[in-house]
Amino acid sequence: MTDSPAAAGSPASRRALEVAGIPSFRRISEHLNHSTYARRKHLPGVCDFTLGNPHQMPQDAYVDALRDALHPHNDQWFAYKTNEVDAREAAADSLSRLLKVPFEAEDLYLTTGGFTAIALALKSVTDPGDEVIYSLPPWFLYEPLAVEAGLVPVKVSIDLETFDLDLAAIEAAITQRTRVVIINSPNNPTGRIYPPELLRQLAALLDDASERIGRRIYLVSDEPYNRIVFDGARFHSPAEFYPYTLLAYSYGKTHLSPGERIGYLALPPSMPDRKELGTAIEAMQLAMGWIYPNAVLQYALPRLETFTIDVGQLQQKRDRMVQELGGMGYRLRPAEGTFYLFVHSPIQDDEAFTEALSQEDVFVLPGVLFETPGFFRISLTASEDMVERSLPHFRAAIERAGQDRPEDAEIKLPTGLIPIVPASPRKLP
To answer: The whole model's pTM is what?
Structure first.
């Protein structure tokens, strides 16, 4: 970035100004802090489908795990903590069972949430000026993370009908400067779980491209929702197919507790030279500001690995919203995982449509915040009461939009799908 009058006259660094000036970042900040939603979100009776925040009290099992971990067992209970052995072992065992890949405890690096795990991955394998490829619609903060690390974001499309990765677009975007490709499955905001064959093709593509450009391209797999899958689906990680995968995970999604910051970065046992990379990662954990989770959360982690939020309850809300919105004429696909539905806006201007909804205290996020106009995102973490109260407003909104209901607009759930709510909390395998 070259010197500019704004930079020269500002107390902030050029890097900070560049991050703050990212258009998508500014849009998000404006929406969350200065919109109708920002003014009215705390009022009673609103229907809040915006962020993945809880709208019911936390599970007793979660609170009990934290309470028990808070009780000191010795005088070093709250001393400095790095990558604690018990926490790493519990996380590695759980991840190994989930993916059927034998992760080793020493290859998991504990972080203050999945957010920091992504930043740690980027800074551990890239140099300033390297390029990082990711697909639109993205998680909001990939671009700020890349820019802060001195990287060049390269954005590609997905298939907006299937919500699958566009492998041809990824391949076309690779240059001599490409160092990282980020993917997110189950995907926020689309809810898509990328199938094994697609991941195999991506792995082959990255192998071929790495050989062609003469440097290894790493894959950062953002997986905070890998336990939140519906209809009995089996989640597959790219770490099963591509050895050069850095896997970022967050417990804040698994337990719907985003304010309790704990996650990890994991290297698969198939990664060559992972011990050397691990040494660099550990140095970065310290240099980035002691980004280890606090002591209490590390003590609680083995118990946190034994249960999740009630995924059946989320699926029940998904089924209700898909059936009702589809019946009204909205175009949407049933999410295969995550908290979210990504719905076609009935008018081209998704911001105008979501603003009209917000005037009735029904809050969703417009697709433009995900750099994908023409859609809006619904968070299924809203309460059942919010879901029911919102339905007449969604119906009125599409009727006001003057849209004739297309013949194929109604989305049917798979034959024989009957929502079953398991005992809460859900036990992990």
So the answer is: 0.91
